[in-house]
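Example A, followed by Example B.
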Amino acid sequence: MDQKSTDSLTDQLKKINQKLESIDFSKSRFYIYNANPLKFALYNFLAGIFHSLGTLFGTVVVAALVVYFVSQIDLLSPITAWFQQIFNQAINEQIIPQISQ
């Protein structure tokens, strides 16, 4: 590249940088939102739907994993054995009277 084209590119880059520095981004965001309100509302609506569906899907997956792992743990047999031990002790100590035939 020759010197002239390099200087031209440099000048163009300087102009672009000046334009970027002059933009007030808080105002430009306002202009983008108001440029097409229906399009903006549609995008926000779709974003909300997809956010909700993603949350729902994640919750279903986590709940299914929790239910699966809890079902693999045998929680009922220790509780049943404990109740049966208490019941047998109560019968042996004659707290519950036995019906004689």
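Example B, a separate protein, is given below in the same form.
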Amino acid sequence: MLVIQPLPLHGGPSAALFGAFIPLALLLHASSAQARFLEHRRVPAAEPAQKHQLLLAKSYDPGYFHNYGVRSGPPQEDMGSYGDDGSEHDATMPRNMFTSDTMAYNFPFLDNMMPVAPMDSVKHGDGAYGMDAKYVSEYLNPDGFPGVVGKGCMCKAPDGPTEKIECHCGKESDNDHYTWLKDTPVTGTKNYTLTPADISYRAGNYWEPNVRGGIASPADSLPAGSYPNQAAGDRIWPLPASAAGDRIGIKYARYLDQVHDRAQECDTVSKRCTVPCKPGDAVTGVLGNTHVDA
């Protein structure tokens, strides 16, 4: 309620009468404004129950992940170990042929051939109670000496302590090249296979876990030190294990590994680019969304 004290007016009876109406006019104007304010603040009438049910059925953003907008440049992917940019790995090498004792031979323009777009990064989340997704870079632990060619072996576990392991291996060739083998049990038998393994993590096929697409959901993610997952007594680092004189800076190892993988994408002998056929067969070549007669 607005209360206004009338001011003294000079000018005779007419001025006094006019002055008497001023408080009343202002009071009516204030009441009218208050009524309009209440009209705008009026609570809407109740809607049908069906509409309320539709509103409740709609999904909503829990706020686990926020978009921070465009971030400058491709983000630096983890290298050597999850959460590190490769500095920890390179710090274990006293010197190498690329950096020597100074930075004179450091090549700052060597880039990642398979970067992650800034807007695709999931490392800037603020998930509730630490419930953030993790992205495990494809070449977290690259192999500076890539090359996995060979037939592998089929082996049988011995029945007793005095017996030997029996293995039947594929035909060797001059092109065979591998350092590590992956053993895979054959279900229901005592047999297991030994196949040449690519030890690049996660681009290879040796280490676990195999993070599909590189994205580990919040509930499935492991501690940072568990990529790749190793038993405490078997843990080795840096990965892959190699002689001190053979080790190079991790970004150079990643570049060599990526170039090798690109060269193996399609050739005349790769399983991904060849198919058994004979004259007269109808063969279709599929290149992305393009299908052509081959």
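On Example B: The helical segments are 13-40, 49-57, 87-90, 250-263.
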